[in-house]
Specification:
With about 230 residues, the chain is of the alpha+beta class. It has a seven-stranded antiparallel sheet with strand order 1-4-3-2-5-7-6, with helices on both faces. α3 packs antiparallel against α6, α4 packs antiparallel against α7 and α5 crosses α6.
């Protein structure tokens, strides 16, 4: 039997006529009971802005270059596609499982202390988990990514495949990875519309990132998205 992990994964998660799915209820998203601080973000703007076709023509991975700050209003717009509204969010999720979580490494966000934050999608808040941002450790985790120092904020998208697996079995792992792509794409479009730079870092030392975020077993980093000017 071919033991290539990628090929094995796809083989084990195939569906055939007559196959059933677990059909269970997806576990709830993360809730932090006692964050160090909660930041209420400004209400996102829902009207106006740049025409969508013009924005899409400009979307491209561009590392931050200037190193200046971004505002709470801008981060609110960037996170708005990830927020909960009408029982869902701004991107599709198979079975409504929503296996994604989003964290922020804040270096230079106006009126916000540096540190590590969790994005609470339901309340559209930032929850501070740590007041320390070890930039040297993050740079090592991201394989010496040079543009990290110029990023005002970097978003870490993590996947909790158990939520999707409860509904779809092993195939839920596929859906968790697809969902990360949906969410990152929407944030990149929003960043482009605001004139910001967005650069997805998909290659990193997984265990280093898990340690820096104190992630529990079963939650895995998927993409790190650098944001800035």
């Amino acid at each position: 039997m071919d033991k290539h992990p990628g090929k094995l994964f796809y083989r084990l998660t195939r569906l055939f006529p007559g196959d059933g799915l677990p059909g269970g209820r997806a576990p709830a998203a993360k809730v932090y009971a006692n964050p160090l601080e909660s930041v209420d973000l400004p209400a996102p703007t829902k009207e106006g802005g740049a025409p969508v076709w013009k924005v899409l023509s400009r979307v491209a991975p561009q590392p931050p270059k200037v190193g200046s700050s971004i505002s709470q209003a801008e981060i609110s717009q960037l996170l708005q596609p990830l927020s909960v509204r009408r029982g869902g969010r701004g991107y599709p999720s198979a079975g409504g499982a929503y296996p994604l979580e989003v964290y922020l490494g804040v270096q230079n966000l106006q009126d916000t202390f540096p540190g590590i934050y969790h994005y609470a999608a339901k309340s559209h808040q930032l929850e501070q988990l740590s007041s320390k941002l070890n930039l040297a450790a993050w740079r090592e985790a991201l394989m010496d990514l040079e543009s990290l120092e110029q990023a005002a904020v970097f978003l870490i998208f993590t996947a909790v495949p158990d939520r999707s697996e409860a509904v779809f079995g092993l195939r839920g792992y596929r859906y968790a990875l697809l969902e990360a792509g949906y969410a990152v794409g929407e944030v990149m479009v929003a960043a482009t519309a605001l004139g910001l730079q967005a650069y997805p870092a998909e290659t990193f030392y997984d265990e280093n990132v898990r340690t820096l975020l104190s992630l529990p077993e079963g939650e895995y980093p998927a993409v790190v998205l650098l944001l800035g000017r």
